[in-house]
């Protein structure tokens, strides 16, 4: 199993000088969670962006990384705003791999509960799923094209 970190709210931290949240160029949030779960899974950071800033070139880099990986099970930590677009992009490759997208609505650095729960659920779900592309968020687990962020309610749901 491999975890690919692309940034997103999951990884954001508060900058006390500027007063803004930023996506750091590290995997500290994911690595901290993995230590608390006592699980050894390789983590690779590849983008370190807010998902609203992601472009198709970034999705191509993500797709290339997934396709070239020897791992058959990959979890992608991704921003929630365009998670569905990236999942659709990866699904278009028709790889014989299990790819699970997850993220967080609240940064791990501010409140670690949601990010930890989402990543732990994604790991468990990925271990039991067949090849395909999935989204696991806020207790909702399913194929990428049946799970969406409801922006009006601020939560994920089946569609």
List the helices and strands and how they pair.
Blueprint: E1 2-7, E2 13-15, E3 20-22, H1 28-37, E4 42-49, H2 56-68, E5 73-77, H3 83-91, E6 98-102, H4 112-128, E7 132-137, E8 140-143, E9 147-150, E10 155-158
Parallel strand pairs: 1-4, 1-5, 5-6, 6-7
Antiparallel strand pairs: 2-3, 7-8, 9-10
Task: Summarize the entry for a quick read.
The protein has 159 residues and is of the alpha/beta class. Helix content is 31%, strand content 30%. It has a six-stranded mixed β-sheet, with helices on both faces. The protein has a two-stranded antiparallel sheet with strand order 2-3. Strands 9-10 form a two-stranded antiparallel ribbon.
**Which strand order do you get reading across the main beta sheet?**
4-1-5-6-7-8
Helix content: 25-40%
Query: What's the count of strands?
Result: 10
* CATH superfamily (homologous) name: L-asparaginase, N-terminal domain
CATH third-tier fold name? Rossmann fold
Share in β-strands: 25-35%
Element-level helix/strand string = EEEHEHEHEHEEEE
Question: What's the level 1 CATH class?
Answer: Alpha Beta
Whole-number average pLDDT?
Answer: 96
How far apart are the termini?
28 Å
Any idea how many domains? 1
**Morphology call:** globular
Count of runs of 4 or more consecutive helical residues: 4
CATH architecture descriptor: 3-Layer(aba) Sandwich
In this structure, how is the largest beta sheet organized? 6 strands, mixed
Written account of the structure:
The chain is 31% helix and 30% strand. It has 159 residues and is α/β, with parallel strands linked by helices. It has one domain (2-158): L-asparaginase, N-terminal domain (Rossmann fold). It has four helices and ten strands. Strands 4-1-5-6-7-8 form a six-stranded mixed β-sheet, with helices on both faces.
